[in-house]
Amino acid sequence: MYTIFVEYRILPEKREAYFHYMSTIPAQISERGGIGYRHLEGVEQPNTFVEAFEVEQLETYQAIRSWRLSDTELPTFISGGAAKLHMWAFAPKE
Question: Which ranges in the chain belong to alpha helices (H)?
């Protein structure tokens, strides 16, 4: 099982439109194999968001990553655009 994190900071003036856009993302992540999607905002850093979920296969992550990074709408909300959209997969170490 891999834990996936997506991190970015949105433009404050686009906050309302961002939340409208994000309303469909949990279902789309789930349809693509993501499990336990969470959407979090920084307490000390308003407008900084982390999305977190898990996938069973690295290939699932790679497909979701490709889909998210090819999205042309999300970067319009991000301070700095697509270059500031970060996405990582982490594997447990025991």
Answer: 15-22, 25-31, 58-70
